[in-house]
Amino acid sequence: MLATIANAFTVADIRKKIFFTLGILALYRLGAYIPAPGVEAGTLKDIQDNFSGSNILGFLNLFSGGSLSRLSLFALGIMPYITASIILQLLTVVLPSLERLQKEGEVGQQKITQYTRYLTVGLAFGQSIGYVFLFQSFQDSSGSSVVGNLTFAKLMLIVISLTAGCTLLMWMGELITQRGVGNGISLMIFASIVAGLPGGIQKWWTNPDPVFTVMMPFVALAVIVAIVYVQEGQRRIPVQYAKRVVGRRMTSGGSTYLPLRVNMAGVIPVIFAASLMAFPPTVGQLLNTPAALDFAAFFSPGGWAYVVGEVFFIIIFTYFYTAVTFNPVDQADNLKKHGGFIPGVRPGRPTAEYLDRVLSRLTFPGALYLGAVAALPTILISQTSANFFFGGTSILIVVGVALDTVKQLESQLMMRNYEGFLN
Prior knowledge:
The chain is mostly helical. It has a single domain (2-414), classed as SecY subunit domain (Preprotein translocase SecY subunit, Orthogonal Bundle), CATH 1.10.3370.10. The chain has 19 helices and 5 strands. A hairpin with a 2-residue loop joins strand 2 and strand 3. Helix 6 crosses helix 7 (106-136) and helix 7 (106-136) runs antiparallel to helix 8 (152-179).
């Protein structure tokens, strides 16, 4: 494997992509330590207890890489963009105009992406206002607020800075997708979780509960093994190609297979479900009233209401995202155009129905697997302070994104006749 990594760095374009991705992620982590203008940086250390433990602020702080607890330029993280993507994808099912745009190919997708960007800015602006008033309620030991004497000018300064930081992160993520390695948004969430891993290891090592200290490595290892096993699992549909005459040449028929993964949606449903389940307790924290705080505590990460809701949305988004990424009708048409067929299945509509039936049978256990991996470790360690770092959601995102990134590097190496990472 080390030799393969060395080969990756010997290819100029792949090396540039890797360094470009690492450079963007380094800038992302640097921005997490730059406080927004107007913030009293000296008082931030005294409010860190609000962002530890099993609460929604700790969960959001994990996904922002610690930026939220510092109220830095990137305090919002990339969550507003993910929320906007969820809203637009759901609206494509409801609004015929968006559905037509989605079917127009690349041009329509660019329009939808543009709408997602606009919605991200709006969500970031509204969320920034809520965070400013939330931090105003936090006081240090001397009674000073994090944002000091809040005036309208200071409010707008902080809100515009946080909104601009979120917009900049969105642009950086798209740059990684276009010019780097892997999905930029997923890699940013990956970097945020990994950045908090040393703190999670320290809390595990210093945890007073000996059962948790002994059990945690085995739980984490079992989850990682399960993720790798299922992520790599696939159903191979045999495809036979008939002989055809192309110009003056006779092309010989051949046989291959169509790989259908058990989990075709990857970690996207987990990210979407975590973002959606973070919305109710976030609103409760921002309203900061007794009833709202009780509502936030009811949906707090680690609680049964949060776990049930997360599993439900993971299953829903797994089916939804699988249907978006794989269209059995299009696959059947492509096979028919190129003279391919599945043995024992007639080309055209019967092929589409067969693929849809197989995909439905694969998606169900894949959705249950994602829900189980996200929920069970969280339930087992929900009473500890390190549950966000070693919970099923965090491990699933980290391992899933790492596998997807390695596969993209592997495919680029295989095009240049190098041995793959996973071989």
